[in-house]
Amino acid sequence: MKYLNPIYRALLDTNQKDLAVKWFNESIDFYHPLAIASLKKLLGLEEQKTYLGQLAEAVAEFVTPDM
After folding, report:
1. Cα–Cα distances in Å, from 54 out to 33, 34, 57?
2. CA-to-CA distance for 28 and 65, rounded, in angstroms?
3. φ, ψ of residue 37 in degrees (nearest 5)
4. Is the full-model pTM beyond 0.85?
5. How many CB atoms lie within 10 A of CB 24?
6. What pLDDT digit, counting tens, does each position of 14-34 carry?
7. CB neighbour class for 62 (10 Å; exposed up to 12, middle 13-18, buried from 19)
8. Is the separation of the CB atoms in 24 and 43 below 8 Å?
């Protein structure tokens, strides 16, 4: 997450959400489940509310506080 969040946030800040979503979908198989949940939240993508999803969301909020 240390490296992923700044990359995806920079894409969003420069109005390149389509590219961010494309890269996310291409790379999702290589990401840890917590990273996936955090990036889905950052990108505004839907996520099922499973226990792991809720846990990942809580961790994502801790790791990426609102700016």
Report:
1. 11, 10, 5
2. 22
3. -65, -40
4. no
5. 20
6. 999 999 999 999 999 999 999
7. exposed
8. yes
